[in-house]
Amino acid sequence: MLLQRQAFVIHRFNPFVMKRRTFLQSAGMLAGATLIPQQAWLRPLLFPAGQMTALRGNVSIYTERGGTIACLLTPEHSVVVDTQFPDQANNLISLLKEQNAKPLDLLINTHHHGDHTGGNIAFKGMVTKHIAHANSKTNQERVAPEREQMDNTLLPGTTYTEHHTEKVGDETVTLHYHGAGHTNGDSLVHFEEANIVHMGDLMFNRRLPYIDKSSGADISNWIDILRHARRQFDKDTLFVFGHAGEGYEVTGTGDDLKAMAHFLKMALRYGKKAKKRGDSLEDLVAKTTSFPRAPEFKGNERGVRRVLSAVYAELEEA
Ligand SMILES: [Zn+2]
Hints:
- The protein has 318 residues and is of the alpha/beta class.
- The protein is built from ten helices and 16 strands.
- The chain has one domain: Ribonuclease Z/Hydroxyacylglutathione hydrolase-like (Metallo-beta-lactamase, Chain A, 4-Layer Sandwich), CATH 3.60.15.
- It has helices at 2-6, 20-31, 38-46, 86-99, 114-117, 134-146, 219-232, 254-277, 281-287, 301-317; strands at 8-12, 51-56, 59-63, 69-73, 78-81, 104-108, 127-133, 158-160, 163-168, 171-176, 188-191, 196-198, 204-205, 238-240, 243-244, 251-252.
């Protein structure tokens, strides 16, 4: 977690505890002391806004509500990976526009879940290229009508199947797909110059993960994806995680990927043993508060049930 400690907060405001003047000063740090347009300071009075944290190069993360967003931002270029929900995306857009009012070079979705794509609609008309894995787009098309969200859905215009590279200013952004994991459409997004990889929801840092079997999740292959990522990238790579447990960071190293792979392996093994004993899913949920040999992965009963349901479903597929 050393790398995370080196990161520094460049913007944080909470309108309920900060006076407007303090907020303007704080926002000015990011904005190069330009004036905040009226709308931009009115918005956080309605919605508590999030935090932009610089990582390295020109890459930052934005955290508010939903999956972690990564941004590349220079006066000439901008890239956004994932969009949380519309209100959060609008808060982020206000911050981005302070430095760069040009259209985004790239909008990327790591996968289709609403806490990563719900804010896409806020970027409508502002994006040169919008990319996701082909399965991610298919999933988004499938779930939007189910949730009666078709009018508020912005689908990626470009898809890929294995690898896809875009040059953006001095940065090279490559998307990698290594098969099904958290869903069947998860991209790893590598900012090659900054050596930062957004893992999307392939990483729940010490938090019980959502395993979306209805969208083709595959726990065994997920373990392989994490192992492969540790080999594919290097010791200096900084990873961004979709989510983290309380007290844990949404960025980290290959050691955190190793811990996640270990958790998934232990969860599969735990389910296998229980199934052999004849435990029903309900029996197992009732007796589980944490997972053997991976107790740092925490969650409530709903979280335990979600993991064990997916584990049982996968064991039945085998
Ligand atoms: Zn997800």
